[in-house]
Amino acid sequence: MTMKPLDLFGVDALLGDEERDVQATVRRLVDDRLRPQLPEWFESGTLPREVARELGGLGLFGMHLQGYGCAGTNAVSYGLACLELEAGDSGLRSFVSVQGSLSMFSIHRYGSEEQKQEWLPRLAAGEALGCFGLTEPDFGSNPAGMRTRARRDGSDWILDGTKMWITNGSLADVATVWAQTGDGVRGFLVPTDTPGFTANTVHGKLSMRASVTSELVLDGVRLPASAQLPGAHSLGAPLSCLNEARFGIVFGALGAARDSLETAIAYAGTREVFDRPLAGYQLTQEKLADMTLELGKGMLLAIQLGRIKDRGEITPDQISVGKLNNVREAIAIARECRTILGANGITLEYSPLRHANNLESVLTYEGTSEMHLLSIGRALTGHAAFR
Ligand SMILES: Cc1cc2nc3c(=O)[nH]c(=O)nc-3n(C[C@H](O)[C@H](O)[C@H](O)COP(=O)(O)OP(=O)(O)OC[C@H]3O[C@@H](n4cnc5c(N)ncnc54)[C@H](O)[C@@H]3O)c2cc1C
User: Fold this and answer.
1) Which of 43, 336, 366, 370 is catalytic?
2) Which numbered atom of ligand 1 lies nearest the CA of 163?
3) Does the structure show a pLDDT above 90 at 273?
4) What is the tens place of the pLDDT at every residue in 119-176?
5) Nearest protein CA to atom 41 of ligand 1, as residue
6) Partners of 178 in the beta sheet?
7) Domains and CATH numbers, the chain
């Protein structure tokens, strides 16, 4: 009898009934309805908008938020859903992260009651899509330098600037856009049919291909005063949204790793080299055992951080620990699994290299690995080495 990698850590016993149910439901959705189409979406460089209805129908958008049509689950359940989505493709998890943790969270935490009523139920159902524009062509790791400006004209606001690398930008109905004002950074809800707003899809990506990434151009976009997010008073507001999305990545990246490892184990069991199954060679077993250790340790870390988050005690530095470790280990696992698949591993027929390529983006977005290293370094020493 063989065991699944995470069974060796007794992970299931750490989860409650509801958490296991959420995980099983999302795994079924991914395996039965989405996985068969993922290679094609990856190859054609798209993720069809219709997927939103399916994900919304299961209550996956903003599932950890309360009210306004959101499911209101705990953080661990949200994390497990991210894990199962990313076991399909990081593009799927990004879709849900951006909708729930960036677009919806920014409205839920910082929006007016009117903004919440207008957008959250439709975003939760997947009837409307949101995006989150913080990064600019010249300012990614250091968003404080952003050049997008919002200026007053009577009671209206006028926005000018360019946002870059925005997930779902060309699909979105509403964009949360962060801009400098004379009084610091503020957030605005921009309906994407507002004159002066354009979204241009980025082509030629080698990573995160089953996901739409866009440039947002704001050219004299006029918004009423009611478009401003009234609760957001500084750069801390968008950074708090990023923490929500990063938490999902702590679990999500492990989904890509688990799927790669399960694929490699299955392949090694049937592939014969030198007249014996590849799985029977010590070099293969060393790879599989080492990867299992890192996957399991990452999972225990993710669950521990989820429990801390559910107590309302998690800090950004703790999320940095999880994001840095789990993405770094996941990409190493996906690459190692690819070696076990030999030449077959470079095709879309098998998932590990698709996962590894996707994880290149995950390594970079929501704070690069270097930024998380520096955050941990600051927490340990008290010295900020960012500049
Ligand atoms: C597929 C994808 C989707 C994305 N989706 C979104 C989205 O929806 N919304 C959004 O706002 N953004 C999004 N981003 C942007 C992402 O958040 C940024 O790419 C990220 O913050 C890094 O910024 P940058 O690319 O400008 O790199 P840079 O900041 O230019 O960094 C380049 C390199 O320099 C290193 N570096 C930077 N500063 C330091 C330092 N002080 N010390 C040492 N090294 C340093 C970095 O770690 C990195 O290795 C997305 C990106 C990708 C790839």
Assistant:
1) 366
2) 11
3) yes
4) 999 999 999 999 999 999 999 999 999 999 999 999 999 999 999 999 999 999 999 9
5) 386
6) 187
7) 5-125 (1.10.540.10), 130-227 (2.40.110.10), 236-381 (1.20.140.10)
